Amino acid sequence: MELLRERNDDLRSRAVSGDGSQRQHALGKRTARERLDLLLDPGSFVEVDLFRRHQAHGLKVSDHRPHTDGVVAGSGTIEGRRVFVYAQDFTIFGGSLGQAHAAKIHKVMDMALATGAPIIGLNDSGGARIQEGVMALDGYGGIFRRQVEASGVIPQISVVLGPCAGGAAYSPALADFTFIVRGTGQMYLTGPDVVAAVNGERVTHEELGGAAVHSGLSGVASFVHDDEESCLADVRYLISLLPSNNMEPPPAYEPCGATEDIRPAFASLVPVEPNKPYDIRDLIAELVDDGEFLEVHEGWAANVVCAFGRVDGGVVGVVGNQPMVLAGVLDIEASQKAARFVRFCDAFGIPLVSLVDVPGFLPGTDQEHHGVIRHGAKLLYAYCEATVPRIQVIVRKAYGGAYIVMDSRSIGTDLSLAWPTNEIAVMGAEGAVNVIFRKELAASADPVELRSELLAEYSEQLVHPYYAAERGLVDDVIDPSHTRAAVARGLSMLHNKRRHPTARKHGNVPL
Questions:
Q1: Confidence at 364, pLDDT banded by 50, 70, 90
Q2: Which among 74, 121, 166, 185 is annotated as catalytic?
Q3: Which of 28, 40, 198, 356 is most solvent-facing, going by the fewest CB within 10 Å?
Q4: Catalytic residue check, 167
Q5: Which residue is catalytic, options 402, 418, 429, 485?
């Protein structure tokens, strides 16, 4: 037994230690095991398939058969809660995926789904292992199929800490949330050499698929960080806000008296003038416990803000129009961003709070020709389909179709609250008067005076704060300082909401 123990310990030591850590550090990256140490609670990691090696032959691949086959897989805890994880090891075959490598990932994904625990993938790979041909591609297919099967059942988080090339890039795209590190993380389907060969375009790895591209242009990355330490710390924070699976409630703290919390700062944060900008994130900070929230896709489609936070201890998802960017209008990208966030919250039982200050959809041929109708319908569909508790707060203005789409009473919000400054209408008073009274204004001897009178009449009749409340489309017109308390009371009232969707295989989202 002593000899067997020595042999096993020696083999385990060599399998764990590796010999490429210096090269990895020279690239500004940590090793797979160092990353797991940062991500997981100390001493909690249980590894599976440590001794697994590839069985491929030919093309010199059989000459080198290291243990782990370039991926460290297993399970650990984050703040005591179970997660499953795999970390690709760039020091072995460049982290490339072969049959054995894929089988290890398949195994932990299957265990995550079977036990109802989140799955976290730390990506650092050159892509498919060329020497293994179609078997590498089959391995990717198995990962993607499992991701789709797990979608809406367990949270899926992808962390891009190095290259993520070719078919590998679909895994972050299928995940619920994708983190990326500036300078080292890249995602693309075809690399710079292929791009240059096909169309003659010269581009660097960073320009083609770096953090700035995917956090600000493509929208693939949900979170971007400057270093691996802060990135993995935020992964831990996100996990603390999410349920382990769709059958469990989000992790809640003890109530903190939010139902009686009066916040006078609300009124001073929003200008009375409908066209004057302000930062909706200041309102979110007043709404949530301790002013703490985690914004998703901060750099992409910034005219809408999506964030996780807590209200009276319970996790909520907040969607808010951002007047600081494009006056808070909805457009193609904002609709996509908010729709995906709403669908995630609904899938995992996270209540939704919508802060509405929207002048409409962004007009223009570019938006219309690129399908703003279809993309706007995604957000409409997401809200209509959502069965979680939903609260709408109309802060200042809500015009036209954008009012409907932003979780209005007509599409099923449970509780609609409005500030006394709210304006709900088909369009703003100025535009409405110009349309309705076009002929009268053209024929008037004093169109300025007439327009002033008509504006006052229109506003008095149709856009005063109580017009919608009188017709049951707003449940209460509240003092702005009572917003946090009113939302907390509403969430408490709706806590046990149950709604069973119509029996069907699935709907047809306007993708």
A1: very high
A2: 166
A3: 198
A4: yes
A5: 402
- What whole-number distance in Å separates Cα of residue 488 and Cα of residue 484? 6
For the record, the structure tokens of 360 come out as 């409409």
What helix, strand, coil percent values describe the chain, rounded to 5?
45, 20, 35
Tell me: pLDDT of 13 over 80: no
For 93-245, strand residue ranges (E) read 119-125, 156-165, 177-181, 186-188, 223-225
Contacts of 75 (CB under 8 A, 6+ apart): 45, 46, 48, 82, 83, 84, 85, 108, 111, 117
Q: What are phi and psi of 260, to 5 degrees?
A: -120, 15
> What pTM was estimated for this model as a whole?
0.92
User: Do 455 and 433 touch, CB atoms closer than 8 A?
Assistant: yes
Place of tokens 């297919």: 141
Task: In whole angstroms, give the CA distance from residue 52 to residue 297.
Answer: 37
The candidate with the shortest Cα–Cα distance to 487, out of 259, 280, 293, is 259
pLDDT in tens, 296-321: 999 999 999 999 999 999 999 999 99
Write down the pLDDT at residue 421.
86
Euclidean distance between CA atoms 320 and 355, whole angstroms:
4
Q: Who contacts 105 (Cβ-Cβ below 8 Å, separation ≥6)?
A: 71, 73, 86, 97, 121, 139, 143
Any catalytic annotation for residue 402? yes
* Active-site position among 167, 309, 317, 490: 167
The one catalytic residue in 313, 401, 412, 431 is: 401
In the chain, the amino acid numbered 459 is S
d(CA 444, CA 382): 47
